[in-house]
Write a structure and sequence with these properties.
Order of helices and strands: HHHHHHH
Distance between the termini: 47 Å
Largest sheet: none
Structural class: mainly alpha
Number of strands: 0
Strand content: under 5%
Radius of gyration: 21 Å
């Protein structure tokens, strides 16, 4: 099997990381500056695209960097912090639930889970007027 694709992704991730951060401490400092200085001064709500823009990279680059061996854990913690901020805004009625739901699914890996019955099974989906036809 050819690992060129994986190697190229790793190389791109490393080049992007070097262009953005000089060290783990630099990464940590930039993330703190985003949350503690930039957001309060700008009045923006924390989000993935805003963090990427602050760092001077694209959303796609930021996603790739979450797998970087040096910076990944720090970026994933920032990602989690962004989700926490948005959830708190929604709880306080300052962010519509539909916007929160879309963002959590699109940027944070959340997904809808089917409702379970009391016995633990998932209920069947019935399409009105079609079940009898499909049963034939």
């Amino acid at each position: 099997m050819n690992n060129t694709y994986s190697t190229n992704k790793d190389l791109t991730r490393t080049r992007t990381a070097r262009a953005v951060f000089s060290s783990g401490e630099d990464c940590k400092a930039k993330l703190e500056r985003y949350f503690e200085e930039y957001l309060p001064a700008s009045g923006e709500v924390a989000d993935i695209e805003g963090l990427a823009d602050f760092l001077g990279i694209t959303r796609k680059d930021l996603i790739a960097l979450t797998e970087h061996k040096t910076y990944g854990v720090l970026l994933r913690r920032a990602w989690n912090r962004i989700a926490k901020i948005k959830k708190q805004l929604a709880f306080r009625g300052k962010l519509p639930a539909a916007v929160l739901s879309f963002d959590l699914k699109n940027n944070h890996g959340y997904r809808d889970r089917p409702e379970e019955q009391q016995d633990g099974s998932v209920p069947a989906v019935i399409f009105q007027g079609r079940a009898e036809e499909w049963a034939k």
